Recover the amino acids of this structure.
């Protein structure tokens, strides 16, 4: 029997992309509500009751409120609401032991887009002892405007938004708590995100003075080795050789993430993650988590 899946909020950006990745699969039966009923409490409750697994693609408060309707249905929450909450399994399969936790979970909090890139760079270095948990990390990044939701998408598509701008200047970005918790940091990193005039795609950068790290080894060979060891054999994460030009849109439409270690060979290093903010950073990982939860091949429906 196909697994019955209800996407609560399927009309949003993430929901639409999850539906696109699932709609052709014979092992999935999608439960859908028409526009007239998708906000009705009773209709949503019936859909949750019918589903084996539901995926919440809602704003944070709406995702919290949906728990009262979901009952015992297994959930994947694509919002920020439960990523550091007790009783929820963090939906980043690449972390040590996390695939098995996700397989057996009833509540999975999908990793955030910027958090995917940041944790993918930080956690291997913390685990390998390359940086200490109290390290004063500096992160920067740029995302396509689809990460800002419907209002920002409309602003860009109407031609009224700048080509590039910084935001979260008060160091209050909503992904910081999960970056710290799941990256293994005890000191809040500096994080400066930006939005660019392109729809999808993302670059996240971790800036380091390698000669000031424990062991005092200059250059980036030890950093690259830690990343390669951490992701050896991973189906979706690749560690690439340094390059001259890095394109935030290079992996659009995929669930893949490319990491690289750039620098001058003397101690100044930038570790870089490239991913699709709506793919690996949202809908792709949601499908990857779903596959683990239902016992399907982890890469089913993903590229």
């Amino acid at each position: 029997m196909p697994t019955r899946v209800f996407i609560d909020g399927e009309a949003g950006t993430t929901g639409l992309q999850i539906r696109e990745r699932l709609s052709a699969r014979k092992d999935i039966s999608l439960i859908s509500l028409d526009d007239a009923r998708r906000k009705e409490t009773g209709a949503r409750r019936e859909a949750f009751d019918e589903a084996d697994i539901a995926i919440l693609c809602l704003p944070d408060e709406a995702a919290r409120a949906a728990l009262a309707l979901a009952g015992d249905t297994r959930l994947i929450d694509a919002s920020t609401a439960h990523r550091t909450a007790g009783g929820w399994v963090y939906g980043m399969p690449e972390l040590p032991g996390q695939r098995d936790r996700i397989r057996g979970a009833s509540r999975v909090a999908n990793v955030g887009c910027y958090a995917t890139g940041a944790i993918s760079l930080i956690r291997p270095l913390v685990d390998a002892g390359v940086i200490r948990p109290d390290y004063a990390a500096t992160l920067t990044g740029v995302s396509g405007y689809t990460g800002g939701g419907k209002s920002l998408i409309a602003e860009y598509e109407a031609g009224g938004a700048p080509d590039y701008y910084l935001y979260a200047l008060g160091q209050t970005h909503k992904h910081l708590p999960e970056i710290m918790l799941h990256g293994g940091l005890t000191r809040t990193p500096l994080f400066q995100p930006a939005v660019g005039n392109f729809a999808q795609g993302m670059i996240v950068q971790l800036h380091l003075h390698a000669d000031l790290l424990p062991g005092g080894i200059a250059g980036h060979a030890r950093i690259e080795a830690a990343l390669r060891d951490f992701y050896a054999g991973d189906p979706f994460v690749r560690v690439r050789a340094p390059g001259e030009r890095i394109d935030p849109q290079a992996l659009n439409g995929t669930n893949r993430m490319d990491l690289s270690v750039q620098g001058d060979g003397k101690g100044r290093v930038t570790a870089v993650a490239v991913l699709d903010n709506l793919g690996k950073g949202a809908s792709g990982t949601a499908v990857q988590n779903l596959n683990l939860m239902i016992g399907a091949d982890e890469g089913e429906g993903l590229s």
